């Protein structure tokens, strides 16, 4: 069966792609992630999937437009509501594309992440699949997550430090206190050094 695999990042795509292929499916990836911010992060993840595409190899459809406004229009900023809106945005687009291009089913690498709301991803996938008329192919790939990350590191693929959205970036780094220019040490200490040098 022809399956459209939504790809959230390169590291999460490796094992699901190979698992589906081993089951005899003809798999095409889709990189559509208007949630990823800022722009530099979006470009890093996009490039990483392009590198992976060459190494597996794997056909991929790329959504290369930076989608800040699309994402912000689609989500409620309060978690977990924003995650639901984000899943619905990406999986809805994937389902519509699957219908338009004649795929027999669609799925997502979000199902391989140990950080996402697995059951919510499944529920929304099934809902948008029913609405669009193409089945959502469910699988629990979380047990493959660490192996996928190890393989991504071995391939020297970019590995992100947060989910992707501007809110998750803030939640991930708000307490680090790292100085942006020197890359280490609490910000207040570096500022103190600067004051002492004046």
Description:
The protein is of the alpha/beta class and 198 residues long. It has a single domain, classed as Rossmann fold (3-Layer(aba) Sandwich). The chain is built from 8 helices and 4 strands, in the order E-H-E-H-E-H-H-E-H-H-H-H. It has helices at residues 10-22, 39-55, 68-74, 81-100, 118-132, 145-154, 166-173, 187-197; strands at residues 2-6, 26-31, 60-62, 105-108. Helix 4 packs parallel to helix 5 (118-132). It is globular. The model is unreliable at 187-198 (pLDDT under 50).
Summary of the model, kept short:
With 198 residues, this protein is α/β, with parallel strands linked by helices.
Q: What are the defining features of this structure?
A:
198 residues, alpha/beta, Rossmann fold, four-stranded parallel β-sheet, 8 helices, 51% helix, globular
Secondary-structure topology with pairs:
Elements: E1 2-6, H1 10-22, E2 26-31, H2 39-55, E3 60-62, H3 68-74, H4 81-100, E4 105-108, H5 118-132, H6 145-154, H7 166-173, H8 187-197
Parallel strand pairs: 1-2, 1-4, 2-3
Helix pairs in contact: 1-2, 1-6, 4-5
